[in-house]
Amino acid sequence: MSPTRGKTFVGFGFGPIQSALFLYEAYCSGRFDRYFVAEVDAALVGAVRAAGGRYAINIAHPDRIETVVVDGVRLCDPAKEPDRQELVSAIAASDEMATALPSVRFYDTGDAASVARLLADGLRRRDPSKPAVLYTAENDNRAAEILTERLNAQVPPDALTNTQILNTVIGKMSGVITDADTIRRLGLTPLTPATPRAVLVERFNHILISRITLPGFERGIGVFVEKDDLLPFEEAKLYGHNAVHALIAYLARLRGLTTMAEAACHDDIMAAARAAFIDESGAALVKKHVRLQDPLFTEAGYRAYADDLIERMVNPHLNDLIARVTRDARRKLGYDDRLFGTMRLALAQGIEPVHMARGAAAAVLCATDDAPATRSSVGALLRQIWGEQADEQADHLIALTWAAMPCFP
Question: Is the overall model pTM greater than 0.90, yes or no?
Answer without folding.
Answer: yes
